[in-house]
Design brief:
heterotrimer, A mainly alpha, B mainly alpha, C mainly alpha, A: mainly alpha, 7 helices, about 75% helix, C: mainly alpha, 3 helices
Chain lengths: ~170, ~475, ~110
């Protein structure tokens, strides 16, 4: 399976670089969705189905929808400003693919032959993800509820119109 | 039980939203005030619980282990007091009832986040509650939708999220070696491979993430903008407790309970603390905006707390915790005064205001107490905590750092004196003749904070013993 | 046995680092607020993959899945709040150039 893994990893990095460099924000959002899908495939491959479903539905689904709606609801710059930015763009982003490949090459050279100099703690408990989430991590669940509450407040307070909407 | 501290605000939110919305909104403020006062009382009632040695208490409601010791007691007390102060300031500065209502709700969520952060003994739950506190802070900075507030909020979001990513990556790498994410498991996992470079790297990443959250130089870029652009009540909250609980408290907790005082780590912490102390003080000298100067002053004071931590001794740690408490009180007091000035004089530009103490006597005099404590003048509380930190550094052999701390004290005195002179003393500037003193509630909170400072300063031996003894016990473990 | 685990981990670590580098670069260099958010998302994806790989190596998929799910929930809330801030900026100002907002210096 390792060859397939390598291909997927390369696809992931290419999609990420495309998302950063794409001129149109819509294409950037699609690049992000592709990265999410590759991660989902890895999750399925590494026997984490619960997280895979979550990642697929939330990250490639919900977050892409949020991005697209934010992009759609905010008009782009005027044509003149776009031209002014575009000239600058090549200089700023042009080096990214080379830098990423260079970073990968340097790290691969340094790290690939290194042993893991720590004791890897192997699993001793056999339990499903659902049991762990619901039985062992109560505080995290409570925290999630709190942050969702905060998110609801944030969405209501920040997204409403400037008119006399009362909450 | 300590989980009340997390559950009571949640009940408060539910009551506020489902009951008060339909009844009376104005009463929401008094309700929240009563709630926070109750939280303070709950914290004090649990004091013997907290001091009964370094026991990790198993909490029956959440079925997890809580982290109960002297340091968390001080932090919880600070959280409740500063939330109270922020609430009172909001009552007098947010004039729109619905805005006040929303602020109260967000304040309750933020206090749940910070209380949970202090109480948890699992590194991943620490991250979760950190995010709860951070998200509620983002919304609180941005919800009035002024242009500057939105920019400050966005910068804070991005830098805070980068810090989060660093911390999460570190947790992931640590999971390779540790069997669980609780503090005990991580301590054991690190202990099993002491020479590992990977673990060193991940610990370094985690600490860097915490430095960004704490606002230490050179990761402080978001702090002045966020503090000065936020609404006044939110600045009180941010400066008084949020940055400190999220960044400095977690740093103290992790170094003491999880990572241990490795020599390399201590050196890095000392260095960054010293740099923050100096850069914060120097930058504060050149500011013209009241709140921005106070923001840079916060960076400097957090450097002091970190210096105390870096000394590695029980005395230094006690000094750090005491300064944590003092800073919460005096910085909140100074920001409350800044809110009062902004409210009555309608500007925080120090070039435009002057001589206000003739028109605002209460604000002026409490500001004097706040600034004396911040500058470290005896017999106020700030003097004692700085003295303890300097002595601890001296005794631990970090003479250079002790000298830097003393020098920075002089700088602190000079910029705070300049602030006091420009804003309150001197002749009344034109156009300010009809500024009145702020209302009784506002004055009440300033006077209360000032009294706490004076009391802690005069009762220093008792207060300090209450902090020092448990810490000695913790460090022996 | 340890050797192959190490190699597996390092291969993934190299690619995760490349992803993280792209994310950091994006946040550093961009002038558009939405693109800064995209960079943030890329960083989050890198960390998620790191968690999954660590879970697979140590055989603790259950714990790691619980952690990843929590992380995803928090990530969504942050995106929503940041999106709200961006929308409010747009309503005040009608442009999304971050260069526009560099006036809080000092």
């Amino acid at each position: 399976m390792t060859n397939l893994d390598l291909i997927l990893l390369i696809l992931m990095v290419v999609a990420a670089v495309w998302a950063v460099m794409a001129r149109s924000l819509l294409k950037a959002a699609i690049g992000l969705a592709i990265v999410s899908i590759v991660i989902t495939i890895f999750m399925f491959e590494f026997s984490s189905p619960l997280a895979a479903v979550f990642e697929l539905s939330v990250c490639s689904g919900l977050i892409t929808v949020i991005f697209l709606s934010t992009i759609g609801l905010t008009r782009p710059l005027s044509h003149k400003e776009l031209l002014a930015l575009a000239r600058d763009r090549g200089r700023r982003y042009g080096f990214l693919p080379l830098l990423v490949i260079a970073c990968g090459a340097v790290l691969a050279f340094l790290l690939l032959k290194m042993p893991l100099d720590l004791e890897v703690a192997k699993n001793t408990i056999v339990a499903g993800a659902r049991e762990v989430l619901w039985n062992a991590r109560h505080l995290d669940l409570f925290g999630q509820i709190m942050i969702l509450l905060a998110g609801v407040f944030g969405a209501v307070l920040l997204f409403r119109e400037n008119s006399t909407d009362e909450w | 039980m300590p989980s009340l501290l997390i559950l009571v605000p949640l009940v408060g939110i539910l009551v506020l939203n489902f009951l008060f919305k339909f009844v009376v909104r104005r009463a929401a403020f008094w309700f929240a005030l009563a709630l926070f006062a109750t939280q303070v009382i709950i914290t004090f009632l649990h004091a013997p619980f907290f001091y009964a040695g370094n026991a990790d208490r198993f909490n029956p409601f959440f079925k997890v282990v809580f982290n109960i010791d002297g340091i968390s007691f001080v932090a919880l007390l600070c959280i409740e007091i500063v939330c109270l102060a922020s609430l009172v300031v909001a009552r007098y500065t947010l004039h729109d009832l619905s805005q006040r209502f929303n602020f109260t709700n967000l304040l309750l969520i933020s206090s749940i986040g910070m209380n949970g952060l202090v109480l948890t003994s699992d590194i991943f739950s620490l991250y979760v509650f950190l995010e709860v506190a951070a998200v509620s802070s983002f919304i609180m900075i941005a919800f009035r939708r002024g242009k500057r507030s939105l920019e400050g909020a966005f910068k804070y979001i991005i830098l805070s999220a980068v810090a989060t990513v660093l911390m999460l990556a570190a947790i992931a790498i640590l999971l390779l070696a540790c069997s669980d994410t609780s503090f005990a498991a991580i301590r054991q996992g690190i202990g099993q491979s002491p020479e590992s470079n990977i673990i060193l790297f991940s610990v370094g990443m985690f600490i860097s993430g915490l430095f960004i959250k704490a606002g230490l130089v050179p990761f402080h870029a978001w702090l002045p903008d966020a503090y000065s652009a936020a609404p006044d009540a939110v600045s009180v909250l941010l400066a008084g407790i949020v940055t400190k609980a999220c960044g400095v408290y977690t740093l103290i907790r992790l170094v003491v309970s999880v990572f241990g005082f490795r020599p390399g780590l201590s050196q890095v912490i000392l260095l960054l603390g010293a740099v923050s102390v100096l850069v914060g003080a120097l930058a504060a000298l050149g500011q013209n905006d009241f709140k921005r100067m106070l923001a840079y002053s916060s960076i400097s004071q957090i450097g002091y707390i970190v210096l105390g931590l870096g000394s590695g001794t029980a005395l230094g740690l006690a000094g750090a915790v005491f300064h944590f408490f003092n800073h919460a009180i005096f910085k909140s007091l100074l920001f409350v005064n800044a809110a009062a000035v902004a409210e009555e004089a309608h500007t925080t530009d120090m070039d435009k205001i002057g001589g206000l103490s003739s028109r605002m006597p209460v604000t002026g005099s409490t500001s004097v107490i706040g600034f004396l404590s911040a500058a470290g003048i005896p017999p106020l509380a700030g003097f004692w905590s700085k003295l303890v930190i300097i002595i601890a550094l001296w005794k631990a052999g970090d003479i250079a750092y002790a000298v830097i701390a003393v020098l920075a004290s002089i700088l602190t005195l000079s910029y705070l004196l300049s602030m006091q002179r420009r804003v309150f003393f001197g002749r009344l500037k034109q156009g300010l003749e009809d500024t009145r003193e702020v209302g009784p509630g506002f004055s009440f909170i300033s006077v209360l904070l000032a009294l706490i400072i004076i009391a802690c300063g005069l009762l220093f031996p008792m207060v300090f013993n209450a902090i020092y003894a448990p810490i000695k016990q913790i460090l022996i473990q | 046995m340890n050797g192959s685990i190490a190699e597996f981990f390092w291969v993934f670590a190299v690619f995760i680092s490349m992803l993280a580098f792209a994310g950091f670069y994006c946040i550093l260099v961009t002038r558009n607020l939405i693109r800064a958010l995209i960079g943030l998302e890329i960083l989050n994806k890198a960390v998620t993959l790191l968690f999954i790989v660590v879970g697979y190596i140590t055989g603790r998929q259950a714990l790691v899945q619980a952690l990843v799910i929590t992380t995803i929930v928090i990530e969504v809330v942050i995106i929503v709040v940041a999106g709200g801030v961006i929308m409010s900026v747009y309503r005040n100002d009608e442009s999304l150039d971050v260069r526009n907002l560099r006036n809080l210096k000092g």
